[in-house]
Amino acid sequence: MGRYVARRLLQMIPVFFGTTLLIFMMVYSLPGDPVAGLFGDKGTDPATLAKLRHEYGLDLPILQQYWNYISNILFHFDFGQQIRSGREITDVLGSAFPVTLRLALLAFTIEIVLGLALGIVAGLKAGKLADNLILVLTLLIISVPVFVLGFIVKTVFAFQLGWIAPNVSNDETWGELIAPAIVLGSLSLAYVARLTRTSMAENLRADYVRTAVAKGLPKRRVIGVHLMRNSMIPVVTFLGTDIGALMGGAVVTEGIFNVKGVGGLIYESIIRREGLTVVGVVTVLVVVYLIASLLVDLLYAVMDPRIRYA
Amino acid sequence: MRGAKSAKWVAGAIVVALAATACGGGDKGDAAKGEVDPNGIYSIEVGEPEKLLQPADTMESNGSIVLSGLFSQLVDYDADGKLTMVNAESVESKDSKLWTVKLKPGWTFHDGTTVNAQSYVKAWNWAANIDNKQGNASWFADIKGFEALHPAAEGAKPTGTELEGLKVVDDNTFTIELANAVPYFAYKLGYEVFSPLPESFYKDPAAAGEKPVGNGPYKFKSWEHKKQIELTRFDDYKGENKAKNGGVVLKNYSTVETAYEDLKSGNVDVLRTIGPKDLPVYRNDLGDRAVDQAYSAIQTLAIAFYADQWKTPKPVDPKVIQGLSMAIDRDTITKTVLQGTREPATGWVAKGVLGYTPNATGDVTKYDPAKAKALIAEGGGVPNNEISIQFNSDGGHKEWVEAVCNSITQATAVKCTGDAKPDFQADLQARKSKQVKSIYRSGWVLDYPVNANFISDLFRTGAGGNQGGFSSPELDAKIAAADTAATLDESVKAYQAVEKDLVNYMPSIPLWYYKVNAGYSEKVQNVKYAQDGDPIIEGVEVKK
């Protein structure tokens, strides 16, 4: 087990460098100059532009820029400065990530609780009315685009019923985040429900379940321990990658509900050609993905003893 | 996607219906109208400023609206474009070259230090110095000795630290000597780049940009990045434009639509603009709190004269461009596609500017398909019989560009396509590297309310706003003559003549003037919008 973890951690290094380099190159290959963009329609003189470009090292070859950037992160935990505002990118990330983390956590909780519950019910009652109802519901959620869902939630709950404020205020209280969290988590919720349902329905007919029932174990134990544990493997795989997706994929939801989180930050940074900020956010997200997938892999061994790591 | 769209419309209809009823209920409770709380605090929708709040480095509107509260300049203008004195007692010149500025005594910065002649001179010297990389440094180029502080060549070092033309006479007097006569120089002084700076600024300019200390009607309270900026009234302010409220919170919204929702639910008080989605309904929603007012900005189609199409085999005949201009049905497009948010232009100088002349273009901006066709034929036709209009697709321009194209094609059979760039950055890049293939959309908001700003800064050979490569020695000579006119009046008149003359060159096709389409909540009154389209924040009154 220890060796497996060590190997996985070592594998993270090339993945980390590979992804950050790719993102770095992609952002820098976008047309548009971040420094020239500072001056809008009216422009400024070339001398000032050259001076600014030099200050931010934008006149260096791209690989050297990448190396300067990554070495600063690794050795000094310095993500650099935003070109426009001059703010430290660590500050920018520090103000955006906690909000998104809370939003993602809420969405994740909703997704697990509701998704699993629906999936279990559907799986146990496969083919019955409850299963069909849940099928229709989840298919409906999957097929509606996020922005439409967000708009409907706002219209109904904020404008029609007046239960919630239409937008998240600057305090980002938990209460305000519930509506965006539901919108953000709903798609994954539907997937979790579908995955759980299929996996449960399939395992219900497995030998070990029949054995457990034959042994006379109480129904709660058969379902709760034997059936659930084995059926969770594909679900946990999905949940693991979804943590990263929730953190990074909130662009639309955060926009709709005016949440000042990572999603908006990525969007704005790309529009403003803030290469360093984009790479900074992505670097953090890559780390989140890597850790989440490691945890998922370790959980496999816990859930199914047949999967062992040497 | 079709399903998604219609769902959106259904939901939109519900919003409209709701807003209409909400509005009907609100109108009755207006009994307390007129009672004003002088210490009331209100909020405005403003985006996160792009840069540090340094007066000489801020040029986009999110930053400049904050600075307009924090800093007062020597002069300002009224709605007709007339000069008014703010921090200056007088700004005078006999020859338009040597200007004497007298300050009103007794003004202080927010930290208590005095505003004197030195505060201005030192600030301008600092801002003009290329080592400080201030984006608006070129505004000081009129002043004698600018090249020494701001050499034009890339990588060159400044050879001085002080502008030769700036001299402190006494505590409240200084003189500005210009390199050449500029009759309207006093007007430029109202721009934020000419703000004074307190002594504390120079110790750490970056920190001062995070927590600016100014001399304006408001002092800085706090800046929560990407969330809000708070300003409170500066009680010792000596200017006429004292804040009529206790302070203002500049709130950040991710989209104009979310801001509009918050306006309706009372979470924000003043908007600067209404999104396209809400434009059809906002007059109904807000009643007399809906703002629909002209401001001094114009949208044009600029010709990329360097493009092969217009250059080879021979330079394009202006008649062809006149023809294209007359093929555009401005009235219909502004009414339908743009939903009345623009007003057809009849000249190159926007309204509210000194020297604005109605109908400066004569009939070139009138829709006349027959004449358009005739003019294009007379001028030798559009090369390849095809044009394209470059625009940035992130700015809501696609619809009107298509409409303009349709109008041209229908009237003249010239093929016209939109050339979309993914965003404003890419659009600018193409303009700067001279890769525009045919025509590009362009716009201009006033810097100072004199017609020179809409002519000299756009059409002079090599001017900053002249990105289409238009060049005409005759016109340059006329502009130079207008710039050296003895008095402001003569200069303005000379520029009016130049504007009339532009018809013979057609450096761009004027399309329409911008309007402010905005609104405010029931909590505030006396919300006015300045010529640059921004609300005048110190004039807003908060109701009890």
TrEMBL record, chain A:
* Bilayer-crossing regions: 12-30, 103-121, 133-157, 177-195, 235-257, 277-302
Subcellular localization, as worded in the UniProt entry: Cell membrane
Keywords of the record: Cell membrane, Membrane, Transmembrane, Transmembrane helix, Transport
Q: How does it sit in the membrane?
A: Multi-pass membrane protein
**Domain ABC transmembrane type-1 per the UniProt entry, residue ranges:** 97-300
A cellular component term, taken from the record's GO annotations: plasma membrane
Pfam family example for this protein? Answer: BPD_transp_1
Q: Name one GO biological process term.
A: transmembrane transport
Family from the record: Belongs to the binding-protein-dependent transport system permease family.
Name of this protein: ABC transporter permease
TrEMBL record, chain B:
Q: Name one GO biological process term.
A: peptide transport
GO MF annotation: an example: peptide transmembrane transporter activity
**Gene3D superfamilies for this protein:** Dipeptide-binding Protein, Domain 1, Dipeptide-binding Protein, Domain 3, Periplasmic binding protein-like II
SUPFAM superfamilies according to UniProt: Periplasmic binding protein-like II
Solute-binding protein family domain residues are 88-464
* GO CC aspect terms: ATP-binding cassette (ABC) transporter complex; periplasmic space
Q: Which Pfam families has this protein been placed in?
A: SBP_bac_5
Q: Keyword annotations for this protein?
A: Signal
Q: Which domain of life is it from?
A: Bacteria
Q: Where is the signal peptide?
A: 1-22
Q: Which PANTHER family match?
A: ABC TRANSPORTER SUBSTRATE-BINDING PROTEIN, PERIPLASMIC BINDING COMPONENT OF ABC TRANSPORTER
Q: What is this protein called?
A: ABC transporter substrate-binding protein
